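Ticket #4471: complex job returned nothing on first submit. Input attached below:
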Amino acid sequence: AQSVAQPEDQVNVAEGNPLTVKCTYSVSGNPYLFWYVQYPNRGLQFLLKYITGDNLVKGSYGFEAEFNKSQTSFHLKKPSALVSDSALYFCAVRGLTGGFKTIFGAGTRLFVKA
Amino acid sequence: DTGVTQSPTHLIKTRGQQVTLRCSPISGHKSVSWYQQVLGQGPQFIFQYYEKEERGRGNFPDRFSARQFPNYSSELNVNALLLGDSALYLCASSLVAGETQYFGPGTRLLVL
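Support reply: We reran it on our side without changes. The output follows.
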């Protein structure tokens, strides 16, 4: 069965510092991996995805994510955090078998302090 | 381009009633998925439709049903509402099934 774990409920970082939001997954076969961000009272916005190719994926707003197959991880990173990055971040996985079901993690709240 | 649109934005119902939520995908997108997001949790997959056929179903009771129309818009129906159905219902569209999904703003349902 597919599953996604986001081990941190909240991540606190100072503006200008690098940030990492962690995600690990479990899926049969090769995964499709996604990161989404949700601002208050809004739907989810797509940040980036990994399907195949380079393990380092670049996405919107300066975010990037590193796919690590051996550790089954897909951590979200940004070299220099902004206060406006404060939001709820979701990791999601879809396997290549079992239909098109996408599983989301519980989310990690990022708080960037000025 | 207009993004994914959902209606209504908010809805209040009482237990036992029925509700219909509507979704219009991004122009050209043929796949629509529905998710339930309870406060403090990640979105839970309910259904996916592609080319008007159901292509995936999550672990939700038969009270939940959906359909996709020839213009690729979609409706989610929930019968015999329970208090626990109170949530933000999100619709997402993608060009084809399984590809990147783009989400609408959601419909917030409150069941009293």
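The two ends of chain A are 41 Å apart (CA to CA). Closing as resolved unless it happens again.
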